[in-house]
Amino acid sequence: MKKNSLQRQIILEELQKEKNHPSALEIYERVRQRLPRISLGTVYRNLEHLAASGFIRKLETVGGQRRFDGDLNEHYHVRCLYCGKVEDAHLPILSRLNHTFGKLSDYTIMGHRLEFLGICPECRDAGKFEN
């Protein structure tokens, strides 16, 4: 196996272990425990390759840090407005939404993404948000 393939495989394994949608830097810190000589640039390049190849999802939020998801099943996300943490939002996919919006627009709808915005329990408990 080529070095790049091994690096890519380890990056993918580490990402798939996580359910917290880590940033490239967080993935780098985990991968470095297994591959101490890997560079942050190598992790970035491999994450981009894995996303472009359809092995992972790249989550790009407006004004937020790019995060990565190893779960390819259709699902929604919730993002903390203070710390930027992204988690899965456990609710059924609204598949009729594609059909409904498709009828209301001139677009051919291929799918949709939904992100809820809120304050995570840690930030709320730390007093970063008051009701």
Strand content bin: 5-15%
- Rg to the nearest angstrom? 17 Å
What is the CATH class name of the largest domain?
A: Mainly Alpha
Distance between the termini: 54 Å
Number of helices: 5
Topology:
Elements: H1 3-17, H2 24-31, H3 40-52, E1 57-59, E2 67-69, E3 76-80, E4 86-89, H4 96-104, E5 115-118, H5 121-125
Parallel strand pairs: 3-5
Antiparallel strand pairs: 1-2, 3-4
Helix pairs in contact: 1-2, 1-3, 2-3
Textual characterization of the structure:
By secondary structure, the protein is an alpha+beta fold. It has 2 domains: 1-71, Arc Repressor Mutant, subunit A; 73-131, Ferric-uptake regulator, C-terminal dimerisarion domain (Dna Ligase, domain 1, 2-Layer Sandwich). Helices cover 38% and strands 15% of the residues. The chain is built from 5 helices and 5 strands; from the N terminus they run αααββββαβα. Strand 3 and strand 4 form a beta hairpin. Helix 1 crosses helix 2, helix 1 crosses helix 3 and helix 2 (24-31) packs across helix 3 (40-52). The N and C termini lie far apart (54 Å).
Q: What is this entry, summarized?
A:
This protein is an alpha+beta fold and 131 residues long. The protein has helices spanning 3-17, 24-31, 40-52, 96-104, 121-125, and strands at residues 57-59, 67-69, 76-80, 86-89, 115-118.
